[in-house]
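Trying the structure run again after the queue cleared.
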Amino acid sequence: MLQLIDTTNNKSHFIDFGQNKWVWLARWSSDGRKLALLVTEGMPPVDYSHLYILEWPENKFYQIGTDKFNFVTEMAWAPNSSHLLFLPVIDYQDGVETIGLYITDVVNPSETAPIPIPVEGLIGYKGSLSWAPDGKKILVEYLNKSEYSLYQVDVLLQ
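Done. Tokens:
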């Protein structure tokens, strides 16, 4: 259960994700009308984190990539709040996670697609995911062989 408390008017909103589930990461959209939430359960280290979008203050929420993404590590909103980037684990072998880069159209969340990274062999993700203010490019940090590097990737929004 998630309780959102508006400290201005002291109103509470409750969202039930299911028993023992909790939000471990939340990001406001730039228009302030949506929250991207990574939801999990149990004590860390956690086995999964699912991506949800909560429309505020309507209190509507839905999951992105219901069966496709079992562990999402990070997310970032487009400057105009129309799209959400996120980094799910797409493969796990021999103790090494391979992280993908995906984008979803929040108006039509079934429109979720991978964004190709123009470099082969990128695996681990360190923690940087950011949109440029113009919404035309992003920065993402990946492990390439033994070093972390920032990659600028062009993004075309529909």
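The mean pLDDT is 84. Worth checking whether this holds up in the mutant runs.
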